[in-house]
Specification:
- It is a single chain.
- The protein is α/β, with parallel strands linked by helices and 292 residues long.
- The chain has a single domain, classed as Vaccinia Virus protein VP39 (Rossmann fold).
- 41% of the residues lie in helices and 13% in strands.
- It starts with 11 loop residues before the first helix and ends with a strand.
Length: 292
Amino acid sequence: MADLSSERNSSRTALGVAALRAVHQLLDGEPKILNDPIAAHLLDADALQQIQADPTRIREPLARGLRSHVVLRSRYAEDRMAEAVQRGVRQCVVLGAGFDTFAYRQPDWARSLRIFEVDHRATQQEKRQRLQSAGIPTPTNLEFVAIDFELVSLREGLRTSTLNFSEPAFFSCLGVLVYLTQEAADAVFRLVAAFPSSSEIVFTFSTPGSSLASSDAANSEALAGRVGSLGEPFQTYFDPQTLMRNLRALGFSEIEFLSSEAAEQRYFQGRNDGLRAPRREGIGAAIVGGHL
């Protein structure tokens, strides 16, 4: 996902995430964990050819694990968003939107939402160019919010949009926090906590390698090295217990860290394509106060 604090070039990791979602659509079995027919349209012909030409590579354990995490986090966020809409939330903010495609394939229940995609201007411009080339229109309920976090805070940036700070909002923050400084990551949670009761954030986070099993730590280190070489290094890690305490102190309730067992039960049962729930914790959700 896009790096909210990096240089102004378009995010390479954002394009990589779109490729993982496209692989899931093109080569993984049914039912899809995430139905995303838009993702492949964001890739150029060479990238699609590479995917189709070497399917054995994308079935390697590390590739399957990363893909499982990417499609799981989006599916989980969208399921939580649907629940938020049912309780009356009408604003959705996608932080570090990158090449996220929810707004362009939104189901009927999302039509009442005002959706805000937040990212660097360069990433937004490339995404919009790719969408235009594919003939995919911008939905009327979507607003782009270009924010450069080297120059302005998230709160100040969102103040330039039509987001209503006095109404509940749903925030999606997937593949973002690890790229931020600790201060910037904490500011994201403080911002959401200041929104009215029933607001919610779904987020991903990375845990320190020292707390992981050796194989998971090695995979995490390999991934960090790969994205670091693209100019988007990992910066911030969270201990789950400490994070839980901090979220409660900010006023969040109904905090959930999606366990591997729960994810397997909800989303991965009966699959024959080798996709399994990620083994380590890294996806969470938290609601502000007692929701309506």
